[in-house]
Specification:
434 Repressor (Amino-terminal Domain)
């Protein structure tokens, strides 16, 4: 059984696993996008780090998920990689009436 089959089996048969994986999905997607953007440019972690004025180990921690990026780091990544980060609501926002004080 390969990794993808194992994950699919766990998600199908284990509600706690499925819930935990869904909760972490944004982190997995961020790391996947970061690595993909770096590789698409033909850069190593060290090259990305140099462009961001940081260390290769900091990029490795971001890509492995052992460190969550700060807003400043996200901003710098967006500039250096030439990408946009967006926040998308899971459900449409509904306007609530504003109460006067």
């Amino acid at each position: 059984m390969n990794y993808d089959d194992y994950i699919a089996e766990q998600e199908a048969n284990n509600p706690a696993f499925r819930e935990a994986r869904e909760k972490l999905r944004p982190q997995f997607e961020f790391r996947k996008a970061l690595i993909g953007a770096r590789i698409a440019r033909g850069w190593t972690q060290k090259e990305l780090a140099e462009r961001m004025a940081t260390k290769q180990s900091a990029i490795a921690r971001l890509e492995s998920g052992t460190q969550m990026p700060t807003l400043d780091t996200l901003y710098r990544l967006a500039i250096v990689l030439g990408v946009d980060f967006t926040i998308t609501p899971k459900e449409p926002f509904t306007a609530r009436p504003h109460k006067a004080a």
